[in-house]
Design a protein that fits this description.
The chain is of the alpha/beta class. The protein contains 8 helices and 12 strands.
């Protein structure tokens, strides 16, 4: 069984944890304040273990970063050694100006920033292209939501895509790590449509064949 350490217990972290639990995936939270986090966990995730980030990372097959984009590097650093560790970056660097605006770090994406900061880690971008509603329930009227993944480590990306498949998504290989910037912009489009675009949050992008 795959063991996933979720760093962050906000709306995204909790939604992913709920989906992991539903899919039979072993999940644990890694946070700074375990006691405060336990008070926020209800329903299906009430019994998900909560511990420090370093403890959560120990023995985990994957670290899922579900923290604000500006906190991603510090959160990853708190895990201790990341040599050989798969790190799945779910973050989006945004600011707001009458709608979402992409605001990447100098490296070009948060994922590239993480890869530069931790060259021995196996960094993948994914689960960032939709909101918590889809992370929690990937089924759409026309079929499963697509989940796109970008990264340079083929094995790490395959692990992330297999996890998505277990969760009920249709995983899609979005190419090398440089395309993490593209996926962050897909998130900008989703957020724009969900908010100022008036579509609402209960949708996701899905590749479908022409009839």
């Amino acid at each position: 069984m795959t063991t996933v350490a979720i760093f962050g217990a906000g709306s995204v972290g909790r939604a992913l944890a709920e989906r992991f639990v539903t899919a039979g995936i072993d999940a644990r939270f890694g946070v700074r304040d375990a006691e405060a986090t336990r008070g926020k966990l209800t329903g299906a995730i009430a019994q998900v273990p909560v511990m420090s980030t370093a403890d959560a990372a120990t023995g985990a097959d994957m670290i899922v970063l579900a923290v604000p984009a500006a906190a991603a590097v510090d959160a990853a650093r708190s895990a201790g050694s990341l040599t050989g560790q798969v790190v799945l970056d779910c973050t989006n660097p945004l600011r707001w100006d009458a709608g979402p605006v992409w605001a990447p770090p100098a490296e070009g994406s948060v994922t590239a920033q993480l890869a530069a900061a931790f060259p021995a880690a196996r960094v993948v971008k994914g689960f960032n292209q939709f909101g918590a509603e889809i992370q929690r329930h990937p089924a759409l009227a026309g079929g499963a939501a697509d989940a796109f993944f970008a990264g340079d480590d083929a094995g790490a990306k395959a692990l992330a895509m297999d996890l998505a498949r277990q969760m009920g998504f249709t995983p899609r290989d979005a190419g090398p790590l440089r395309n993490a910037a593209v996926l962050e912009n897909v998130a900008v489009l989703w957020i724009h449509l969900a908010t100022v675009g008036g579509v609402g949050r209960n949708f996701a992008f899905r590749i479908d064949a022409q009839a």
